[in-house]
Amino acid sequence: xxxxxxxxxxxxxxxxxxxxxxxxxxxxxxxxxxxxxxxxxxxxxxxxxxxxxxxxxxxxxxxxxxxxxxxxxxxxxxxxxxxxxxxxxxxxxxxxxxxxxxxxxxxxxxxxxxxxxxxxxxxxxxxxxxxxxxxxxxxxxxxxxxxxxxxxxxxxxxxxxxxxxxxxxxxxxxxxxxxxxxxxxxxxxxxxxxxxxxxxxxxxxxxxxxxxxxxxxxxxxxxxxxxxxxxxxxxxxxxxxxxxxxxxxxxxxxx
Length: 255
Ligand code: 6GU
What we know:
Elements: E1 2-7, H1 20-27, E2 32-37, E3 50-51, E4 61-62, H2 64-76, E5 83-94, H3 97-103, E6 108-113, E7 118-119, H4 121-127, E8 130-133, H5 143-154, E9 203-204, E10 207-208, H6 218-236, H7 248-254
Parallel strand pairs: 1-2, 1-6, 4-7, 5-6, 5-8
Antiparallel strand pairs: 3-4, 9-10
Helix pairs in contact: 2-4
Residues 88-90, 92, 114, 133-135, 137-139, 141-142, 145 line the site of 6-chloroguanine.
């Protein structure tokens, strides 16, 4: 998959995209990331990317001309069949695992990092396929959100994770066994948070790994993990359980 990122802070991406899984995926040719400096698409001496809002109000707005030029140039270089233009903005649709999965089916994603008070609306009207927000809080720009997008999508691509089941086992993967109302339109699928993990040493400063995990009894381990996942979800994200139909066994585990 190919990611193109348009930003006024290209250096921002040097660190975040040069580590771990995203870095390895690039080295292995599974993804390609190109970062484009919006200022390269300006035509004035001062490389102006923003201007005051019509109608008044605080802050500055990203001008349409450099963005149109950048997007059109990148689109013209398109080498695959499915590309989406995505604007990262707090006004966007919330980025959740389901949307990450959907995005991982694309061949190319062109990410535009919003800045200042906003982006001239004609960019959205004419060129943007999806507006995406990573959560209900305000960041000073879309750069962090673009990194979140690249990471969450990359790890879903075939061949990226060594252990193909580790992306499936964890929090926010649909829990078939929770018997949720998938068939009921309008009701979102339910998820459980992940169960707790332990590794060596067995005794760390007097805090010990739960005995069940050392038992080798896989049935017991599975039940313990489910119980802890249910408890953690109830404690930290009760909203995730509101549409879940828990089995009798689950209810018993929760006490
Ligand atoms: Cl995508 N951009 C900004 N500026 N703030 C955000 C966001 C994006 N997602 C959540 N907050």
